[in-house]
Design a protein that fits this description.
about 425 residues; mainly beta; six-stranded mixed β-sheet; 4 helices; 25 strands
Length: about 425
């Protein structure tokens, strides 16, 4: 059955089905690096043994699905000999590691990888250099792997903790937009639950999330698939994605069975702040490989920005300059790191602390699929004929690009850069 059929039978049914199926999904199989068995939400790291991790990436072609039923031809980096995936694997290393990345190229033109923020990158054992043709025209920002089965090996020492991109350095306007990019996370030495070498950047490792923002001009992708020329002056994005997915696929679990080439979800799944049982904040790592600013806004909380582009926000004497922001204006090529907690400020309880106004009767309400009740941890009965995805009275807040044209896609509303934050009741609870 094709994707459009799945869309027709109802996204909600598939979300519930995925929760039963996800435990049976196969792990990635690579000779050196490995990807963690995916939790339903949060970052899925691909790792290798420190202090000399080695990753093998293969630039290849494949397809992804868009929630309007369209299928897009893509390029991306797969892990070793694994199947195509988009975006590329999330590479997680430690500060001080000597990182080796072997690039195999299965594409019909030369390609490469650059590592913004990393110093003294080596290519086949010598310092990586820009490449020029016989006329002196720049052809690549770094050494390349030849078309059709060429290979090259890059290496560098990961000296600075933070969040980084890796992406094609060859004909970037085309190749990055075709999908040749991924995330690189460098963790502080000895403190894998800190973002930077500062105790005040500590986060809860079970609530570490990624928002990798990208865009697609489907006419470019169609031209590349058909081996036709495309004038990049005509480039115009029509789809906008988070972690390689459009809404509502963004809130599907990691490794969802009906998204075989799009393994990374973007649902932030947390519990309320509690000074005794849940005092450590979550972290979101924002990255932008698009061509313009993406002002991303999570409803229901202000984010505390702690760093950008692999650098902590601190003063000359290491004073903490982190600040709360209503939205995160992630510019092209930028990465931002932000922590957040969700506070049950009202502490509504159906008996002990009710809402101080009369709740309208059911016939005067519209029930969305994720509605549970006004009270965290309580499920109301629902009118006959309404669908429900709420499982245990949890709350949902939308998080989306504040440029509202980019939460749509080619004229279809709500298939772009949007996701949710799910807040479960405090532990212990009855949630699945």
């Amino acid at each position: 059955m094709n994707q459009s059929f799945y869309k027709r039978i109802g996204w909600g049914m598939l979300l519930l089905l995925s929760m039963a199926l996800i435990a049976t999904l196969p792990r990635q199989n690579a000779s050196v690096a490995r990807a963690a068995a995916p939790a339903q939400s949060g970052i899925v790291c691909t790792t290798d043994a420190s202090p000399n991790p080695t990753f093998t990436l293969t630039a290849k072609t494949g397809y992804i699905g868009i929630p309007d039923g369209n299928t897009i031809f893509m390029w991306s980096y797969a892990l070793g000999n694994d199947d195509f995936q988009h975006p590329g694997p999330v590479l997680c290393v430690n500060q001080g590691d000597t990182v080796t990345i072997i690039l195999h190229n299965a594409l019909p033109q030369s390609t490469s990888i650059v590592f913004p923020g990393q110093e003294n990158v080596q290519a086949n054992g010598v310092l990586a250099q820009p490449q020029f043709d016989g006329t002196g025209t720049l052809t690549s920002l770094t050494n390349t792997a030849a078309a059709t089965n060429g290979s090259i090996t890059y290496s560098f020492v990961a000296t600075q903790p933070g969040t980084y991109l890796y992406e094609s350095g060859t004909e970037q306007a085309k190749q990055v937009q075709m999908g040749l990019f991924g995330a690189l996370i460098v963790r502080p030495a000895g403190h894998t639950d800190w973002v930077y070498n500062r105790a005040d950047t500590q986060f809860n490792p079970s609530t570490e999330f990624m928002v990798l923002l990208s865009e697609i001009d489907p006419l470019l992708h169609q031209a590349v698939e058909r081996n036709l020329n495309y004038n990049m002056n005509n480039y115009r994005a029509r789809y906008w994605l988070i972690n390689g997915r459009g809404f509502p696929d963004t809130i599907a679990p990691n490794g969802a069975a009906w998204l075989p080439s799009q393994p990374y979800g973007a649902l932030a799944h947390i519990h309320p702040y509690n000074p005794a049982t849940n005092p450590i904040p979550a972290v979101v790592r924002y990255l932008n490989v698009g061509t313009e600013d993406f002002p991303f806004h999570p409803h229901g909380n202000h984010s505390r920005v702690i760093g950008r582009d692999g650098q902590p926000w601190e003063g000359p004497s290491s004073e903490n300059l982190a600040q709360e922001k209503f939205s995160i204006p992630v510019g092209p090529g930028q990465t931002w790191d932000a922590t957040f907690s969700w506070y049950d400020a009202e502490n509504w309880d159906a008996s002990g602390h009710p809402i101080p106004v009369e709740v309208p009767r059911d016939q005067n309400l519209t029930f969305g699929p994720y509605y549970g009740s006004p009270y965290l941890g309580t499920l109301d009965s629902r009118p006959v004929g309404t669908d429900a995805q709420n499982q245990c009275g949890e709350y949902y807040h939308i998080a989306h690009n504040h440029n509202l044209t980019q939460i749509a896609g080619w004229g279809v509303t709500m298939i772009g850069q949007a996701t949710y934050t799910r807040i479960d009741p405090p532990l212990p609870n009855s949630c699945p």
